[in-house]
Amino acid sequence: MHKTFTFNYPKMKSLYITVLILFFNFSVLAQVDSTKVVTTQKDTTKLALNMDAVYARPFLKLGKLPISIGGYVEANTSYFATDGVTEGMSFQMPRMTLFVSSTIRNRIKFLSEIEFEEGGKEINIEFASLDVELHPLFNLRGGIIMNPIGSFNQNHDGPKWEFIDRPISSTTIIPSTWSNVGFGFFGKYAKNNLVWAYEGYFSNGFDDTIISNTENRTWLPASKENKERFEESFNGVPLITAKTALKHRKIGEFGISWMGGVYNKFQEDGIQIDKKRRVDLFALDFNTVLPKLKTYINTEWVWAYIDVPDTYTQQFGSKQKGGFIDIVQPILKRDVLGWQNSTLNLAFRMEYTDYNVGTFKETNENIHDDVMAITPGISFRPSSQTVFRMNYRYIWETDIFGNDPSKTAGIQFGFSTYF
Q1: What's the confidence (pLDDT) of residue 45?
Q2: Would you call 117 helix, strand, or coil by DSSP?
Q3: Is 16 among the domain residues?
Q4: In a 3-state reduction of DSSP, which class is residue 204?
Q5: Which end of the chain is less packed: N or C, by CB atoms within 10 Å?
Q6: Residue 43 has what DSSP assignment?
Q7: Which UniProt keywords are listed (predicted)?
Q8: Which DSSP category does 28 fall into?
Q9: Residue 181: which pLDDT band, with cuts at 50, 70 and 90?
Q10: Cα separation, 202 vs 236, whole angstroms
Q11: For the residues 185-206, what does the mean pLDDT come to?
Q12: How far is the C-alpha of 212 from the C-alpha of 227, rounded, in Å?
């Protein structure tokens, strides 16, 4: 579900050992002269947007070394049953992510994000870009960029969320942590309580596995399996991603984004073999904090339009939609066991995803293939950078014919923390 760039096992093992050695050496340096270790703090006087999430993380600056490092880790246990059948309790460590950043020269920055998934089974380069700051309203970015579609794709770090599972629509319609090689520009304008920002990128993109995959449905995350997209475009047509966001300090942030391009190979050796078939995604996102209750509300909704060939059966949807809403209510904030300003939260997520919006041609009845889920939970934060969370998750999955849905229920407990 969350694959991006997969290495084979020998390379994975070698890189993993190398990273551990480097991390150990950095730790030793920090112990030798701990007075030179500082934590990079974001400027709280400015209004931060989802697009700022890539740099709004805790980093350690080690002495006079030209780089800063950081990361986060997630681990949890779960017990689920589907229609009364269970495989028992399982333990997971879905990801550990390392950040490495460097200010190469004034207004020239580099940041990389490397993710170790499923206990080191896979290594993914999710972000590795060079930023050139020319003017607040116009800056350049190139490398492996995170396509800014929706809000979750940009702001996906585990410690920021009260829920163990990532949103369904943000992982199965929008491919989770969807990134590609490309370049583009971004900018921001702020005045008083208002800030406006934009981003636009050209990158490699999807391929025809979105309609030719083992899921036997239109499935955009299938393109994440294509490692070649980090070396060349599947069809020579760039994927375009654009987003704009507006935030008011007292109201919240609203974002609108679009990502689209040709996904099929329409010509071979200069000979046209098919027409150009497009995939387009539109997303709206909004987040706010209610002033008196401090209730945090975050929501995202996405629509996907896919030009599916007429030769495909109707189980391959040409339109998909879905979204989620999170409500997080702090109920206690006090010092606990020496942790200052610890917070206890109640949380609730509601989500819906429809993989095949439309009706059958023969009967004009609704095509289902949809998922609905609710997730109440409770979380404890000894600091803003660490969260312990417990979720109860209930999922209804309905097939394309609208038969009685299969029901999955389970409990999850885990933690996520920056380090």
Answers
A1: 39
A2: strand
A3: yes
A4: coil
A5: N
A6: -
A7: Signal
A8: H
A9: very high
A10: 12
A11: 96
A12: 16
Residue 8 has pLDDT above 80, yes or no: no
Alpha-carbon distance of 237 to 278, in angstroms, equals 10
Q: Which domain holds residue 397?
A: 9-418
**Rounded to two decimals, what is the model's pTM?**
0.85
Structure tokens at 266: 């329409």
Q: What is the pLDDT of residue 227?
A: 85
Residue 180 sits in a domain of what CATH number? 2.40.160.10
Q: How many domains does the chain have?
A: 1
386: left (phi over 0), alpha (psi -120 to 50) or beta: beta
Q: What pLDDT band is residue 42 in, cutting at 50, 70 and 90?
A: very low
Tell me, yes or no, whether 3 lies in a domain.
no
Contact between 261 and 279 under an 8 Å Cβ cutoff? The reply is: yes
Q: CA–CA separation, 7 vs 125, rounded Å?
A: 10
Q: Is 228 helix (H, G, I), strand (E, B) or coil?
A: helix
Cα–Cα distance, 305 to 286 (Å, whole number): 22
pLDDT digits (tens, 9 = 90+) for 244-275: 999 999 999 999 999 999 999 999 988 999 99
Structural domain contains residue 4: no
Mean pLDDT of the residues in the chain:
89
Q: Dig out the tokens for 29 from the structure.
A: 């340096």
Residue with tokens 């312990």: 388
Say if 1 falls within a structural domain. Answer: no
CB–CB of 90/71 below 8 Å?
no
Q: Write the secondary structure of 271-334 as one string of H (helix), E (strand) and C (coil).
A: EECCCCCEEEEEEEEEEEECCCCCCEEEEEEEEEEECCCCCCCCCCCCEEEEEEEEEEEEEEEE
Tell me: the pLDDT tens digits for 98-149? Answer: 999 999 999 999 999 999 988 777 888 999 999 999 999 999 999 999 999 9
**Cβ partners under 8 Å of residue 293, min gap 6:** 329
The reported pLDDT for the residue numbered 46 is 66
Among 60-64, 286-290, 372-376, the range scoring the smallest mean pLDDT is 60-64
Strand 67-82 relative to strand 59-62, pairing = antiparallel
Q: With cut-offs at 50, 70 and 90, classify the pLDDT of residue 277.
A: very high
C-alpha distances in angstroms, 42 versus 48, 53, 190, 378?
Answer: 9, 10, 16, 27
Find out whether 407 and 394 touch, Cβ atoms under 8 Å.
yes
Question: Of 129, 110, 217, 122, which is closest to residue 179 (Cα–Cα)?
Answer: 129
Contacts of 103 (CB under 8 A, 6+ apart): 66, 109
